Amino acid sequence: MKVLIVSSSFFPKIDGSTRCVYDHARKLAERDTVYLATRGIPGTPKEQLFEGIHVKRSSVSFRSGSLLDKAWLVLDQMLQILGLQNKYRFDVIHVHGYISGLAALPSRYLFRVPLVITTHGTELLWPRNLWWKGETEVKLGLLFERFVLRRSDAIIAQSVGVKEYMLKIYGRAIERKIVIVHTGVDHRKFIAPLLTSPSKNVLFVGALTEVKGLTCLLEAFETVHRRVPDSKLALVGTGPNAGYYKELVSKMRLNGSVEFCGPVRDDERLVRLYGESDIVVLPSNVGGPISCSIMEGLSCGRAVISTNVPGGIPDVLGGGVGLLMKPEDRSQLASYLMRLMTDAQFLDGLSVNARKAVEERYTLDTMVDKLSALYMRLAG
Predict the structure, then answer these.
(1) Tell me: the pLDDT tens digits for 182-216?
(2) Is the pLDDT of residue 129 over 60?
(3) Is residue 57 pLDDT above 70, yes or no?
(4) What is d(CA 327, CA 181) in angstroms, rounded to the nearest whole number?
(5) 10 Å Cβ neighbour count for 187?
(6) What CATH class has 2-184+363-379?
(7) For the chain, where do the domains classified as CATH 3.40.50.2000 start and end?
(8) Is the peptide bond before 310 cis (omega within 30 degrees of 0)?
């Protein structure tokens, strides 16, 4: 089977959605012929074979900008997809995000190729004060998103909670098209030694922003550090406000206990960081699909704390797999951290449950098995 994956984001960019696209494409490429159409990046080849994936980059290199810029991106990618479909005759096109979906719609109708879409959340699930876009742009995006979803042949929801918010936001007209395919993690790559004794190390992996609840984490850790002076916090990631958080750590007098690791592109190093930690925390303030860092932490057999927000996080961490807190609840987060640092039996129990959940339900193989079955059904 020939599959075309379309995404505006791919390596060398590093973020959660890029990781999802990368894992999807490389695992699928082990069994099928996979092409990936994405935006151009200066200094990166326009065509390359990357871990079995035939990557094709467009001439447009930006990812965001004015509405006119985005319209040009859609048009450029639309022409790229039409050319690729005409040349290779893919059995299925799988897009990530509605911008890529708009670009793929002409090929769906002209070539009658099935279109599958995965979305990666919406700012409509975020607190209003955290929106990155203006209200007009968010509402316009919602119109385009509904337009693409209703014209796709299948819509991937990563959990029941994701399906519920999609129906609430986009309407029940898409319900019959939704297929639940849980996010998978490479459980062979993300595996760490069992804990022999608690190290009191905490790990955060994500963008250094309030979207991810970083101030809440730092304030909770400050409380914990006063009672557990040998506790450590490692922050993996970057963001435009990284300097602000460094100043905040300095004001809290935590410079020797909080480490800013920057973005980590090497998976081996990332696995080592998970292995050196007892606890993985993502106190996200926004709903949406499950975070890759949560899945990686579970796969490494670490106790994971995150927030009870709409979408995939409660679905995955419920039932004793991890711990769920209220968004912005610093005292609850501090309480969870204290218990995990002082109750070895509780920590061990969560660690075992985490790895078991991944092996039973959330491997990349399981995810791609379900996607392949869907592709076969759609292609006839």
Answers:
(1) 999 999 999 998 877 778 999 999 999 999 999 99
(2) yes
(3) yes
(4) 26
(5) 20
(6) alpha beta
(7) 2-184+363-379, 201-361
(8) no
